[in-house]
């Protein structure tokens, strides 16, 4: 049988042609993926130079982590961050519903200051008297200048039973040190009770995986007890899962849009309610600590007229983050979309102005609750 033979030059030609096609295809794909393959080569080259020539000790994992943190950090977005092994573990712990810490949600202002968005109810931070709006200056005596939000949160958290000293400033008051003992923070998010006159009260402290289900159960329990009107307390609620906020809103917003989420390419997804009508008067309590998913709920209620908002202007976080896995132990959290209330407004860095402004006259804001209940009584008399 005849067999065709190839010479060595021919085989080498085929080899280098194939290699060229592969390299060209790879370059084309990399260019479309990251924009500048040369920049990626510079990163690899820098890593090699450090390994080969730097006179001090090097930690390859720390260098990789530093490079990734730098990429995300240059976005100058306090909500976007690289999650290393420790950060990702903390996130996983949060998803499971408990973590070692003091129990307060932190944010970062444009000027770089770290602000308490809200203390979580019944946690060490809450019991220590830490309030939404307090400025965090130091942790265990260490100044926080030059640190990012993720680094600060990491320092606040720690082993159950360990102690951390927080230096906080409230308004024009002098800074003060507060020693707080960390505990296992369990995120129960829904509390309810029946007030006089058939007025139900539900407080949501944050939005986790169980919040919508627990809210529905609490609402039904109040109905069974003869509820005629409802106060929904979203004060100092830092938000949480968008899906959970939408789930709660479906009990309180009539048929139609709840929130629209628009990504960088202009693609919009609208979450809607199928509820025929809200068959009870509704009042919602908000304050400066009402943020994110809590603003989705309150914004939808205000825009659709299903209830009335009482308190002071909300925090103003109108963006959505997604978690992208890089490995089974690391990830990137990125702001991927903006959200809009049913009327089409963005509340990001603006907040929601309540229908009736009521400044709190005591730490509990009892006058705000009284104003909401008085409104509901008037509605029930009509």
From TrEMBL:
It comes from the Bacteria. This is Carboxyl-terminal protease. SMART domains: PDZ (SM00228), TSPc (SM00245). Residues 91-157 form the PDZ domain. The keyword NAD does not apply. GO terms for molecular function: serine-type endopeptidase activity. One of its GO terms (biological process) is signal transduction. Its EC number is 3.4.21.102. One of its GO terms (cellular component) is outer membrane-bounded periplasmic space. Belongs to the peptidase S41A family. It comes from Acidaminococcus fermentans (strain ATCC 25085 / DSM 20731 / CCUG 9996 / CIP 106432 / VR4).
